[in-house]
């Protein structure tokens, strides 16, 4: 079946956690999409260097979406050299597909700081989900542009999950449990590959 409506969920996925997957599935089901593509960031320009190498983040994504219909991985940003920008990613995707870019409420708040944010809004339909502690406030320049483009800001009926990659990495570094926020297969992969552990020189002596 040809894909005509695709959701796009970008992120560092460092590591991929339950909130990522829940958000992708909510968009897939509520919007009647043909698929949702999870797009791991290559070298995001607005963030510090990522912790896990690209091949580890891909492997964790593969484990997390196993047996989840409609979810796929698109490594387009990992295959592109240099800093990665959403507008360029959208321009490189196949034509003839209606794309839905999925955002958290925190990303909506700073959307107008994105590189070529106007092009992101023109090339896709924006879908936003509530994040804990972040009201859904559309920046005025974005609201004006969407009005001019006759495009709605689509809101998902999504129960916010209070999960962040930073918190998970901190828990893992301290040896704290992560069963409530990570898929079991992802947690096992992290353990086998000793990801997010503190350097040996900083670990306390037993």
Please specify the SSE layout and strand pairing.
Elements: E1 5-11, H1 18-30, E2 35-40, H2 54-65, E3 71-73, H3 86-92, E4 98-104, H4 105-109, H5 117-123, E5 125-129, H6 140-149, E6 154-155, H7 165-173, H8 184-192
Parallel strand pairs: 1-2, 1-4, 2-3, 4-5, 5-6
Helix pairs in contact: 2-8, 3-5
Unreliable residue stretches: 199-206
Category from helices, strands and their pairing: alpha/beta
- The helix/strand order is EHEHEHEHHEHEHH
The helical percent reads: 25-40%
Largest sheet: 6 strands, parallel
- Rounded to an integer in angstroms, the radius of gyration calculated over CA atoms is 17 Å
The dominant shape is globular
What share of the residues does DSSP label as strand, in percent?
5-15%
Task: Give the domain tally.
Answer: 1
**What is the level-2 CATH architecture name?**
3-Layer(aba) Sandwich
Instruction: Please tally the β strands and state the result.
Output: 6
Q: What topology, given as strand order, has the largest sheet?
A: 3-2-1-4-5-6
Number of helices: 8
- CATH class reads Alpha Beta
Average pLDDT for all residues: 90
Could you say what the CATH topology is called?
Rossmann fold
> Roughly how many Å apart are the termini?
57 Å
The CATH superfamily is known as HUPs
Short précis:
With 206 residues, the chain is α/β, with parallel strands linked by helices.
Overview of this protein structure:
The chain contains eight helices and six strands. By secondary structure, it is of the alpha/beta class. It has one domain (5-162): 3-Layer(aba) Sandwich (Rossmann fold), CATH 3.40.50. Strands 3-2-1-4-5-6 form a six-stranded parallel beta sheet, with helices on both faces. The termini are far apart. Mean pLDDT is 90; it is low at 199-206.
């Amino acid at each position: 079946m040809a894909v005509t409506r695709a959701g796009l969920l970008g992120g560092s996925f460092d590591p991929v956690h339950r909130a990522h997957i829940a958000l992708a599935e909510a968009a897939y089901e509520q919007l009647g999409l043909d698929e949702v593509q999870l797009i791991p960031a290559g070298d995001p320009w607005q963030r510090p260097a990522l912790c896990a190498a690209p091949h580890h983040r891909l492997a964790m994504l593969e484990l997390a979406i196993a047996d989840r219909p409609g979810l796929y991985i698109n490594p387009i940003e990992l295959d592109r050299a240099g800093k990665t920008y959403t507008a360029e990613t959208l321009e490189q995707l196949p034509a003839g597909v209606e794309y839905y870019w999925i955002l958290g409420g925190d990303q909506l708040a700073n959307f107008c700081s994105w590189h070529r944010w106007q092009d992101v809004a023109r090339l896709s339909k924006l879908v936003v989900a509530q994040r804990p502690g972040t009201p859904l406030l559309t920046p005025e320049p974005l609201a004006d542009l969407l009005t001019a483009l006759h495009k709605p800001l689509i809101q998902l009926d999504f129960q916010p999950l209070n999960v962040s990659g930073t918190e998970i990495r901190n828990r893992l570094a301290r040896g704290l449990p992560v069963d409530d926020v990570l898929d079991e297969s992802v947690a096992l992969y992290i353990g086998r590959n000793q990801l997010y552990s503190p350097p040996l020189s900083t670990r306390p002596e037993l």
